[in-house]
Amino acid sequence: MNVSSWVNKNYKLIKEQGLVLDLACGSGRHGRFLLKKGFQVVFLDKDISNLRDLKLVSGAQLIKHNLEKGFSLPFPMQKFDAVLVTNYLHRPLFKSLLSVLLDGGLLIYETFARGNEIFGRPSNSNYLLEPEELIDLVRPTLRVISFQEGYVNDGRKAVVQRVVAVKPGIRIKPNTIMS
Questions:
Q1: Residue 165 burial by Cβ neighbours in a 10 Å radius (0-12, 13-18, 19+)
Q2: With 0-12 CB in 10 A as exposed, 13-18 as middle and 19+ as buried, what is 75?
Q3: 179 inside domain
Q4: Long-range pairs for 32-40: beta carbons < 8 A, 24 or more residues apart
Q5: Is residue 176 part of a domain?
Q6: Best CA proximity match to 128, nearest among 115, 119, 118, 138
Q7: Domain containing 132 — which CATH number?
Q8: What are phi and psi of 119, to 5 degrees?
Q9: What is the pTM of this model?
């Protein structure tokens, strides 16, 4: 299981045994990683066929939903300790995405940015963030803890933006070192 270095570095900031939304989860590599770390995970994607093995796994919930058919999430009343998004961008969903975080909830987000065209897909500007766009999308709703933008090689060369942000009210665990 090839977990993003960004997720691996920051998941410890999520409330222990918290409820995490793995949005546009694909095969669920990050949600599976978090399940093994003791979190409860809601896996959401338009195609959940690659997640069948999780149907009866304690702490896992599967939701089939096409995020690009509308601007909201399929659980208006449910709130999460963390929302995790990797390699996905649908700008109209952002307001709804931030609203499902509990006070003190954490957003871990990383996706492709302008400049990624030289490495291949995605190359369509609809799926590439403009300079500092991700940080602008989370402010002023969330407080940014960490932000990165630029070239990475996490097993695949890419240009990305990454953010970890918290909805006001977080209590960072003692002895948590952020670098």
A1: buried
A2: middle
A3: no
A4: 32/1, 33/1, 33/3, 33/7, 33/8, 34/84, 35/59, 35/60, 37/11, 39/14, 39/82
A5: no
A6: 115
A7: 3.40.50.150
A8: -100, 0
A9: 0.90
Interval 117-140: pLDDT, tens:
999 898 888 889 999 999 999 998
Burial level of 169, CB count in 10 A (0-12/13-18/19+)?
exposed
Is 53's pLDDT higher than 80?
yes
Whole-number Å distance between alpha carbons of 44 and 49 = 11
Cα Rg, the chain, nearest whole Å:
15
> What is the tally of structural domains in the chain?
1
In our burial notation (b when 16+ CB lie closer than 10 A, e otherwise), range 136-154 reads ebbeebbeebeeebeebee
